[in-house]
Amino acid sequence: MLAVQQLESGYGESVILRNVTLKVKPGQAVCLLGRNGVGKTTLMKSVMGLLKARGGTVSYKGADLTKKAPGERAKNGIGYVPQGREIFAQLSVYENLLLGLEAAKGKARAVPEEAIAKFPALRSMYGRRGGDLSGGQQQQLAFVRALAAKPDLLLLDEPCEGIQPSIVDDIRGVIRSIKSESETAILLVEQSLDFAKSVGDYFYVLEKGAVAWEGDLESLDDEVIRKYLTV
After folding, report:
1. pTM higher than 0.90 for the full model?
2. Contact assessment for residue 209 and residue 181, using Cβ atoms and an 8 Å cutoff
3. CA Rg, the chain, in Å?
4. In what residue span(s) does the ABC transporter domain sit (predicted)?
5. Which structural domains are found in the chain, ordered by start?
6. Mean pLDDT estimate for the chain
7. Residue 189 and residue 41: Cα distance in Å, rounded?
8. What is the mean pLDDT of residues 168-172?
């Protein structure tokens, strides 16, 4: 579904990613691991088109998206929950959700019930401003906003960062339900190794902007963790 080939990307004069290659298959949850500052968020922004690739390609469902704008990628079926959530603070919860429909196929005018059902507590918050929500509530909002357009690929950049344990459990359950209910693929950046292992099917580890290791859950042993993930 998603194929990143020899991707190079960065900020200004700085090259952060070097020859990164990875794949995400339909219905698969792929976790991107690595210490702070190795390029995980840079990769997510590059896949979404928020950063232009300096080399390599980003392909989705066989189509080359490397030069496509973020809006076009979203309309092609890629949903994005960014690090920090990026909720529109002055808009209501419902208005934030409606923005997610901009990428929907056809002429959707209402947030799908199946999206809201992932975090039903949001229904009682429709009239509240996004900026008045707690961090956990904002993360739920960002998640449902991304699901509103029924994406086939969901990019999740540290969805559990700074979130209370009860909502972390909810997010884990939602990811598992997405995997069991559909062919939606997930690319997840997560600092919590335990969380990543509880939802992931395949893992890539970045080191200094390059893929240093890849493998399935059984291969993610103590030696790999000690070498690439232990601080």
Report:
1. yes
2. no
3. 17
4. 2-231
5. 2-85+153-228 (3.40.50.300)
6. 92
7. 8
8. 94
